[in-house]
């Protein structure tokens, strides 16, 4: 190793750090494995060979393989034929930026134009410029590597899965395959004669979850995050049945607005006075697809999840724009009342943090239904509520379950 | 962390096999005598890409499970057969079902039969010494595929274990296997002393995965990963077809047809296995390369109604 390379980290270490920063579950053991593989002679034949070894040992899916490959190209940029790799191993994109993207020589005209603009008169806030500055059609040299963009959500796949796996409703069902020792012994004792063994079905999780997702409008920025969370719950939540349906603003609509007339004197009316009069809303349509184009009868969906079902609403509840809409609140409360006919386990997950709810419809909704932010702790608390822990809310919609 | 073991190389062995040499070399010395019934893995027509052979060697050397992902019909399962034949290692197959439990791979304990036998008392089945079988639990324990492989490794012989379509099982399945795959040892709580522990050699585990469910990260960490792609060059497809004994003129025509078919926007792209079956049939029928353009018997590889319609429309248009 030459002195110049001595203060640069080993390229494998740089790559390892980069992957760890991107949430790859790699430990010292994995690092050691690659070194061991190199030591016994794997990955030394060519650059592609080395890359294949690193991918085989550090990636565990096709997507991860693409990320490792891209990062490998970015950080291992030496010439394979040149010999000692540590001499020219780069430490990261910073190097390239300074070398290849040096703007000084190409944009000199522009820079001078801006400086002359400042010189004219400092007392004037605006300076008339005759024409727009012209840009030379400068060829920017292509980067020698690809950028790797990975979405980083407030909650990673694994945490969502961990939170939702706690939602269990174990029930024995299916074919009887397990030996029930207690029952067999009991039967033997009571009958006193040789009797066949008693079998019972295996225990499985029968918890069902219905996810209702708000789409479009103020929820647009959160689409990919919500999709990430729903996907994680669906794939690794290990629940019996997970349904995802979509709506816009309020799950169901159509409550009579005249119910609000007694409150017309107030600027930000609370529903408490008319709460008992709000009729439960059960009829309406939900959407089966993200584009809100395939309708399905809501009653049909609810009937499907009636047994051991939990309801999760994923919506900002009006907090993203911060407005207060009594009509929206009325519809939401009527809908929540309606859902109590088939489940009393309902939570609301809000992609915005609680301090953003203040003063909006969401804050009012949170008085009637357990609402949690869609982060790690929020999701754990939401699952706790679905597991039956009491949640403290200001005006729960009680006593409506038949 | 097990020692790296470079004594076996699949890349070398498969080259010998393909070039017609007997599978001697690496494996003649240890040509198995201990359990002759396990040696008869039939020869497998299999042309691994250089990358795949290299990654297989890497997994073999590090003693880690090899996790294979890829489109259906690209030869994930066949690799295990090929490795087993090329290196003359016994093959143990575990086809995972939705009801599989991790323990089944190691051993099964037939409690129900033991109960029956014990209820018969002195009338029940007896062992060689004339004692009732039900006295000892070990008579009711039978080893599973991984269990047999570990037991064999204990006596110094390596085997290939294929865990096919691991994602079909419950999510607990891979998690329950972590310890056993890491340490290659297990115990039988029902019959103490029946456990096994791999000593010098470790069984070579190949796991196939269809991406139906993601696997737990803790499990993935311990594997060597490879994604099996559809062969990307026509030449390679031709070589594979030729290896399966398809006529040269037919296979060169078919290779270009296949790349065309796969370029179409199909719902379900045909896998290599289906295409080979289809071509073997055409070969046997004596179809001429020109007749292949009309894609006769295309139902063999198009399994979706919309795809069939689309291909028919395209054919009518040309």
From TrEMBL, chain A:
<dbReference type="Pfam" id="PF05762">
    <property type="entry name" value="VWA_CoxE"/>
</dbReference>
<dbReference type="InterPro" id="IPR008912">
    <property type="entry name" value="Uncharacterised_CoxE"/>
</dbReference>
<feature type="compositionally biased region" description="Basic and acidic residues">
    <location>
        <begin position="93"/>
        <end position="108"/>
    </location>
</feature>
<feature type="region of interest" description="Disordered">
    <location>
        <begin position="83"/>
        <end position="109"/>
    </location>
</feature>
<protein>
    <recommendedName>
        <fullName>VWA containing CoxE family protein</fullName>
    </recommendedName>
</protein>
UniProtKB/TrEMBL annotation, chain B:
<dbReference type="GO" id="GO:0005524">
    <property type="term" value="F:ATP binding"/>
</dbReference>
<feature type="region of interest" description="Disordered">
    <location>
        <begin position="21"/>
        <end position="43"/>
    </location>
</feature>
<feature type="domain" description="AAA+ ATPase">
    <location>
        <begin position="62"/>
        <end position="231"/>
    </location>
</feature>
<dbReference type="InterPro" id="IPR011704">
    <property type="entry name" value="ATPase_dyneun-rel_AAA"/>
</dbReference>
<dbReference type="Pfam" id="PF07728">
    <property type="entry name" value="AAA_5"/>
</dbReference>
<dbReference type="InterPro" id="IPR027417">
    <property type="entry name" value="P-loop_NTPase"/>
</dbReference>
<dbReference type="InterPro" id="IPR003593">
    <property type="entry name" value="AAA+_ATPase"/>
</dbReference>
<dbReference type="GO" id="GO:0016887">
    <property type="term" value="F:ATP hydrolysis activity"/>
</dbReference>
<protein>
    <submittedName>
        <fullName>ATPase AAA</fullName>
    </submittedName>
</protein>
């Amino acid at each position: 190793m030459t002195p110049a390379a001595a203060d640069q980290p080993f390229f494998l270490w740089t790559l390892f750090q980069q992957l760890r920063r991107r949430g790859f579950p790699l430990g010292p053991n994995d690092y050691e494995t690659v070194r061991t593989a190199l030591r016994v002679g794997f990955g030394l034949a060519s650059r592609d060979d080395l890359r294949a070894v690193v991918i085989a040992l550090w990636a565990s899916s096709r997507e991860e393989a693409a990320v490792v490959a891209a990062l490998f190209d970015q950080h291992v940029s030496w010439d394979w034929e040149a010999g000692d790799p540590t001499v020219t191993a780069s430490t990261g994109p910073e190097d390239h930026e300074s070398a290849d993207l040096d703007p000084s020589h190409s944009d000199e005209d522009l820079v001078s134009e801006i400086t002359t603009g400042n010189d004219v008169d400092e007392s004037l806030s605006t300076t008339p410029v005759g024409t727009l500055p012209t840009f030379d059609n400068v060829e920017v040299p292509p980067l020698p590597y690809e950028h790797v963009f990975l979405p980083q959500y407030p909650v990673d796949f694994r945490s969502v899965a961990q939170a939702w796996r706690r939602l269990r409703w174990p029930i024995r069902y299916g074919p009887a395959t397990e030996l029930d020792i207690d029952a067999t012994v009991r039967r033997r004792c009571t009958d006193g004669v040789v009797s066949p063994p008693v079998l019972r079905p295996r225990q499985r999780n029968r918890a069902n979850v219905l996810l209702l997702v708000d789409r479009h409008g103020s929820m647009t920025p959160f689409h990919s995050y919500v999709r990430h969370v729903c996907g994680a719950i669906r794939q690794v939540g290990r629940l019996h049945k997970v349904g995802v349906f979509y709506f816009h603003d309020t799950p169901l609509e159509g409550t009579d607005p005249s119910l609000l007339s007694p409150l017309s004197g107030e600027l930000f009316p609370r529903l408490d006075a008319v709460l008992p009069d709000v009729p439960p809303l059960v009829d309406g349509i939900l959407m089966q697809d993200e584009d809100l184009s395939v309708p399905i009868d809501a009653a049909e969906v609810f009937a499907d999840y009636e047994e051991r079902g939990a309801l999760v609403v994923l919506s900002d509840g009006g907090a993203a724009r911060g407005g207060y809409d009594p009509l929206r609140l009325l519809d939401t409360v009527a809908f929540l009342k309606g859902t109590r006919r088939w489940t009393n386990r309902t939570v609301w997950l809000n992609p915005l943090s609680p301090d953003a709810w203040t003063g909006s419809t969401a804050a009012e909704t949170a008085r009637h239904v357990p609402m949690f932010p869609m982060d790690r702790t929020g999701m754990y608390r939401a699952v706790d509520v679905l597991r039956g822990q009491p949640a403290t809310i200001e005006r729960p919609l009680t006593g409506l379950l038949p | 962390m097990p020692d790296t073991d470079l004594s076996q190389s699949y890349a070398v062995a498969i080259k010998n096999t393909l070039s017609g040499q007997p599978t001697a070399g690496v494996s003649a010395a240890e040509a198995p005598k201990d359990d002759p019934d396990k040696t008869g893995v039939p020869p497998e027509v299999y042309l691994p890409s250089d990358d795949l052979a290299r990654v297989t060697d890497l997994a073999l050397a590090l003693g880690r499970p090899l996790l294979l992902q890829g489109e259906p019909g690209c030869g994930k399962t066949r690799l295990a057969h090929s490795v087993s034949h090329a290196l003359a290692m016994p093959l143990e197959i575990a086809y995972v079902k939705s009801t599989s439990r991790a323990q089944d791979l190691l051993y099964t304990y037939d409690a129900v039969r033991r109960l029956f036998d014990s209820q018969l008392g002195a009338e029940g089945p007896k062992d060689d010494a004339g004692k009732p079988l039900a006295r000892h639990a070990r008579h009711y324990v039978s080893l599973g595929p991984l269990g047999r492989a570990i037991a064999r490794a204990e006596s110094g012989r390596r085997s290939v274990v294929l865990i096919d379509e691991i994602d079909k099982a419950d999510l607990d399945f891979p998690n329950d296997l972590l310890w056993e795959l890491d340490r290659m040892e297990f115990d039988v709580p029902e019959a103490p002393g029946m456990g096994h522990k791999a000593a010098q050699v470790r069984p070579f585990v190949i796991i196939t995965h269809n991406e139906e469910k993601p696997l737990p990260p803790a499990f993935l960490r311990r594997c060597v990963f490879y994604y099996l792609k559809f062969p990307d060059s026509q030449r390679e497809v031709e070589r594979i077809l030729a290896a399966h004994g398809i006529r040269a003129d037919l296979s060169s025509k078919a290779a270009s047809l296949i790349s065309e078919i796969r370029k179409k926007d199909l719902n379900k792209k045909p896998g290599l296995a289906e295409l080979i079956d289809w071509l073997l049939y055409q070969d046997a029928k004596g179809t001429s390369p020109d007749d292949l353009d009309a894609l006769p018997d295309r139902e063999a590889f198009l399994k979706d109604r919309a795809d069939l319609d689309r291909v028919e429309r395209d054919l009518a248009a040309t």
